[in-house]
From TrEMBL:
Residues 6-74 form the Transcription regulator AsnC/Lrp ligand binding domain. InterPro entries: Dimeric_a/b-barrel (IPR011008), Tscrpt_reg_AsnC/Lrp_C (IPR019887). This is AsnC family transcriptional regulator. Coiled coil: none annotated. It comes from the Archaea.
Length: 79
């Protein structure tokens, strides 16, 4: 299983809208609103690393109100 954490910046006041859209994505397993430099953190899991890439590039980054993302790929065996 591959895991990535995606840190999301979104338009002011659009956090709940983005969270609701993230909840509908199959590979997104956890979502948390955050304080600080980023607005949302999403945990993405999939058996195929390519599916994680597709989820981020084709789904998350193209959501309305998403301004930027930063992806952290987990290192297998270091959990």
């Amino acid at each position: 299983m591959h895991t990535a954490y995606v840190l999301v910046n979104c338009d002011l006041g659009a956090e709940m809208d983005v969270i609701e859209k993230l909840r509908r994505m199959d590979s997104v397993k956890e979502i948390h609103g955050t304080f600080g430099a980023f607005d949302i953190v999403a945990k993405i899991e999939n058996f195929e690393r390519e599916k994680i890439r597709e989820t981020i590039i084709h789904n998350i980054r193209k959501l309305e109100h998403v301004r930027s993302t930063l992806t952290l790929m987990a290192i297998p065996g270091q959990s």
